[in-house]
Automatic annotation (TrEMBL):
Pfam families, per database record: ADH_N, ADH_zinc_N
Catalytic reaction equation(s): 2 a quinone + NADPH + H(+) = 2 a 1,4-benzosemiquinone + NADP(+)
One term of GO molecular function: mRNA 3'-UTR AU-rich region binding
Keywords, comma-separated and alphabetical: NADP, Oxidoreductase
NCBIfam families assigned to the protein according to its UniProt record, in alphabetical order: PRK10754.1 (NF008024)
Protein name: NADPH:quinone reductase
Residues in Enoyl reductase (ER) domain copies: 11-325
EC number per UniProt: 1.6.5.5
InterPro entries, per the entry: ADH-like_C, ADH-like_N, ER, GroES-like_sf, NAD(P)-bd_dom_sf, QOR-like, Quin_OxRdtase/zeta-crystal_CS
Species: Lonsdalea populi
Family: Belongs to the zinc-containing alcohol dehydrogenase family. Quinone oxidoreductase subfamily.
Gene Ontology CC terms: cytosol
Superkingdom assignment: Bacteria
Amino acid sequence: MAKRIQFSSPGGPEVLELVDFLPAEPARNEVQIENRAIGVNFIDTYFRSGLYPAPSLPSGLGSEAAGMVVKTGADVTTLQAGDRVVYAQGGLGAYSQVHNVAADKVAKLPDAISFEQAAASFLKGLTVYYLLRKTYDVQPGETILFHAAAGGVGLIACQWAKALGVRLIGTVGSAQKAELAQQAGAWATINYQQEDIAQRVLALTEGKKVGVVYDSVGKATWQASLDCLQRRGLMVSFGNASGPVTGVDLGILNKKGSLYVTRPSLFGYITNREELEEASDALFSLIASGAISVEVPKAQTFALADARQAHLALESRQTQGSCLLIP
């Protein structure tokens, strides 16, 4: 028997329960992974709350973890028992001691990167990869706006942008978070509690605004994001931390300068083994070189049984950077 977190109906963190289960044998194309560290991400709260419906109930939760392969399916040739691995597209169920994952969704983990580093950075790092390199190919010297710069995705984006020679303006909610983002490589920060985002971007760019805005906040920042864009600029909406954007009048995009809007996801950009390896190699090389540093505060590392507390901390914006569950 093993333990996992599941929920039987959508709701708040209180619906999460620790239960015993008997792990199934891996299918022919799967590997069975003994998780050593599990990533906690905002998308997990969307599935738990029902914003993104789970395929069936009761349901597991989480899609990111790092650990050791303990069993392989009959058709798996790329991995073997004992391999150190990480995954972020394993389907709901990563909040578990053991999880079966399709082998082509699993990346081998270099020895220089710990399980904790991997679980804290893989989903977020792959997200930053497709945002900065695929959704919009940022160029050295370019200025971009990135909301929630002191969050898990934001801190990796600050570091990655700096490595690319890109000037990242990050929005944050406190002076402490501004300092954190700047230490990670943000070119400038905007405290949205004290400053008008659009006016500050206008000043920082000497009236030029930015060519792209990366927005995982959603409803609360939608209007300000559009106001920060240059003519024919791109609005990249990749999250709903403050609630989904609804009732959009597409005519506003014309009025603001023939703007573009996209709603990308990891599953639209990493669809096969080649794309996974390209993205993970890019991330791992930056971590190995020290260009991206991943550290999880002790206060943001929870036991698997304490998944409720992890979600409470994440949704109350008490966290800085990544959160982990340890089985």
